[in-house]
Amino acid sequence: MPLTYATPLTPRPGFRLDSPDGLWVVRTSDPATGHNMQAGGSATLVIRLNAETTFTSLTAHRQSDYCAFVDIDLTELALQALELVDLQHQIS
């Protein structure tokens, strides 16, 4: 993502602007981090009760652990950051 175009034209006396070399160079105040872990398993039980009847059972478990931290203002100033956490545990 490019930096925003909201850049001061002239700095105040005593201040110096340190702008990146190009629009696609992004320097943020917080480094982006994250992880994504997916796990699960299933088991099938099949029992033949007689010549005409079969009992079938399916059991499954799934879990997901997703976490991301992103500096969403894309500036060197600590203005906005987003932490997204998604934990899921499912049994069927």
Structure description:
The structure is a single chain. This protein is mostly beta strands and 92 residues long. The chain has a domain of 59 residues. 0% of the residues lie in helices and 47% in strands. It has a 3-stranded antiparallel beta sheet with strand order 1-2-3, with no helix packed on it. The protein is rod-shaped, with a radius of gyration of 26 Å. The two termini are 41 Å apart.
Quick take:
With 92 residues, the chain is mainly beta. The protein is 0% helix and 47% strand.
So what's the overall shape? rod-shaped
Biggest sheet, strands in spatial order?
1-2-3
For the residues shown, what is the average pLDDT? 85
Rg over C-alpha atoms, rounded to the nearest angstrom: 26 Å
Span of the ends, CA to CA? 41 Å
Tally of helical segments: 0
Q: How many E strands?
A: 3
Helix content: under 10%
- Secondary structural class: mainly beta
Q: Spans with pLDDT under 50 lasting ≥5 residues?
A: none
The run of helices and strands is EEE
Q: Assess the beta-strand content as a share of residues.
A: over 45%
